[in-house]
């Protein structure tokens, strides 16, 4: 585990559990790009253009909601939400140090 200044942690190579509480890392920002007309994730020296699903997931990553709560919220908005895909998406962002996890 890699502790961070914000008290979160990253676990490269490890999965994201339902009780984890994801949040954007301190140096990462979710914003709207007028030029691209898409939501983007700003990371030092990197811009990640998000699809609508990815942006919807990240908007719910506030450090208070658990992964299970995020999946439930997305399930209430949309017909089907594959929870394993949400966890895989978050795991990739944890590995890239864009998302930090707090224990649930």
Output the strand order for the largest sheet. 4-5-6
Major beta sheet, specifics?
Answer: 3 strands, antiparallel
The low-pLDDT segments are 1-7
Mean pLDDT: 86
**Oligomer kind:** single chain
- What is the rounded Rg? 13 Å
Instruction: Find the CATH topology.
Output: Outer Surface Protein A, domain 3
Extended strand count: 7
Secondary-structure element string: EEEEEEHHHE
Shape: globular
Q: What is the annotated CATH architecture? A: Alpha-Beta Complex
Query: How many independent structural domains?
Result: 1
Describe this structure in words.
There is one protein chain. The protein has 104 residues and is α+β, with helices and mostly antiparallel strands. The protein has a single domain, classed as Outer Surface Protein A, domain 3 (Alpha-Beta Complex), CATH 3.90.930. It has 3 helices and 7 strands. The strands form 3 sheets. The protein has a 3-stranded antiparallel sheet with strand order 4-5-6, covered by helices on one side. A two-stranded antiparallel ribbon has the order 1-2. Strand 1 and strand 2 form a beta hairpin. The longest helix has 13 residues. It starts with a strand and ends with a strand. Pfam families: PqqD. Keywords: PQQ biosynthesis. GO terms for molecular function: quinone binding. This is Pyrroloquinoline quinone biosynthesis peptide chaperone PqqD.
């Amino acid at each position: 585990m890699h502790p961070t200044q914000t008290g979160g942690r990253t676990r490269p190579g490890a999965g994201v559990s339902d009780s984890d509480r994801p949040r954007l890392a301190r140096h990462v920002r979710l914003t709207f790009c007028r030029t691209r007309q898409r939501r983007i994730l700003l990371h030092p020296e990197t811009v990640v253009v998000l699809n609508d699903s990815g942006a919807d997931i990240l908007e719910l990553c506030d450090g208070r909601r658990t992964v299970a709560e995020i999946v439930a919220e997305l399930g209430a908005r949309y017909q089907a939400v594959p929870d394993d895909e949400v966890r895989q998406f978050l795991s990739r962002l944890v590995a890239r140090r864009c998302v930090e996890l707090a224990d649930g």
